[in-house]
Specification:
Belongs to the mandelate racemase/muconate lactonizing enzyme family. It comes from Micromonospora aurantiaca. This is Dipeptide epimerase. Its EC number is 5.1.1.-. The chain is about 40% helix and about 25% strand. The chain is of the alpha/beta class. Strands 5-6-7-8-9-10-11 form a 7-stranded parallel β-sheet. Helix 7 links the parallel strand 7 and strand 8. Helix 1 packs across helix 2 and helix 6 runs parallel beside helix 7.
Length: about 375
């Protein structure tokens, strides 16, 4: 059975709450859903989220890459030759990791559907429930405390607090959130590259001295400043998690070589999909690094693939899979859903997505 068609769907869906970090503010998920169709009419789905400030990927750019270069390479190929098809995608173009990730995931989804098993089973796992943190968007201390209390009441036990917008006020923000949720909720920080190395050390040491029981600090300094990242890691006790500094294997090798971070956040849209993500997780584990799997601001297709990877491979800390939770409504039929602080994977073939809902969708064959 061969691959008969590759379709692209431009999708925009609103968030229920603005998402604010040190890098950007958004009120929508803007993404490209890629659909790979076999000769029997089965479809596998993947997703390329638009995140200008992190990956540099756009919906238009990902669509051009898929339609003009990658799709013609796949049409007519054996739909069951998963490894070869994914390898072809990854070799075909430099960069464009979000476009590659969308096709990589769509090919895995289609393979699982053709076997009649959930994607997690294709990846070697069986769990259908995956815990997640939830993000507290950047804001002032009072608003953050109120939001933290609401999230705790909703059952979330790991909160990711966005900091880095104002180093002088970050200690007060963390203190306010800790007071609002008490000692039983874990708090992790994400500066999204917002601090200088000196600011990072100053803020993190103040948090340590205040006994605020923070779990980890994610990407405190600019992604390219590995010397600064290593300098921070060497001067604080809290674990440092590299995110934007690690897109691919070469990036992770360099972080490991410099001992620049204690942990790594693996994201499909950064590294190019499930195949390279598994390589990154294996490499990190081999060198004693902690791991989580994260998500961009993306929809149920991308988050479902990331959650399936976590369910099959595991991570050393609770992963960051809340992106689709921020949506005001799901733009797909089927797929994942949230229950408290868990992502529930459907017990259905592949990602369990049965179609796209009528929304702001533009489809191209």
């Amino acid at each position: 059975m061969t691959i008969a068609a590759v379709r692209t769907h431009r999708l925009s869906a609103p968030l229920h709450t603005p998402f604010v970090t040190a890098l950007r503010r958004t009120t929508t998920v803007d993404t490209l859903v890629v659909e790979v169709v076999d000769g029997d009419g089965r479809s596998g789905f993947g997703e390329a989220p638009q995140v200008w400030q992190v990956t540099g990927a756009s919906v238009a750019g990902a669509e051009a890459c898929v339609r003009e270069l990658l799709a013609p390479l796949l049409i007519g190929r054996d739909a069951d030759d998963l490894q070869a098809a994914c390898a072809l995608v990854h070799r075909a173009v430099v960069g464009n990791e979000s476009a590659k990730a969308a096709l990589d995931v769509a090919l895995h989804d289609l393979a699982a559907r053709r076997l009649g098993v959930p994607l997690v089973r294709l990846l070697g796992g069986t769990a259908l429930r995956v815990p997640t943190d939830v993000t507290l968007a950047a804001g002032d201390a009072v608003d953050l405390a109120a939001t933290a209390a609401r999230r705790g009441a909703e059952g979330f036990t790991v909160l990711k607090l966005k900091v880095g917008t104002d180093a002088r006020g970050d200690l007060d923000r963390v203190r306010a959130v800790r007071a609002a949720v008490g000692p039983d909720v874990r708090i992790r920080l994400d500066a999204n590259q917002g601090w200088t190395p000196r600011e990072a050390v100053r803020v993190i040491r103040a948090i340590e001295d205040a006994g605020l029981d923070v779990e980890l600090v994610e990407q405190p300094v600019h992604r390219r400043d590995l010397d600064g990242l290593a300098w921070v890691s060497d001067r604080v006790d809290l674990p440092i998690l590299a995110d934007e500094s690690v897109f691919d294997v070469r990036d992770l090798v360099e972080v490991i070589r410099r001992r620049a971070a204690d942990m790594v956040n693996v994201k499909l849209a950064k590294c190019g999909g499930l195949q390279p993500a598994r390589t990154l997780l294996d490499l990190a584990a081999a060198h004693g690094m902690g791991t989580i799997v994260g998500s961009m601001m993306e929809g149920p297709v991308g988050v479902g693939a990331a959650a399936s990877l976590v369910a099959a491979y595991g991570t050393t800390a609770v992963s960051d899979l809340d992106a689709a939770w921020w949506l005001a409504w799901s733009p797909v039929s089927g797929g994942i859903r949230y229950e408290g602080a868990s992502v529930l994977l459907p017990d259905a073939p592949g990602l369990g997505v049965t179609g796209l809902r009528e929304a702001k969708i533009q489809t191209h064959a």
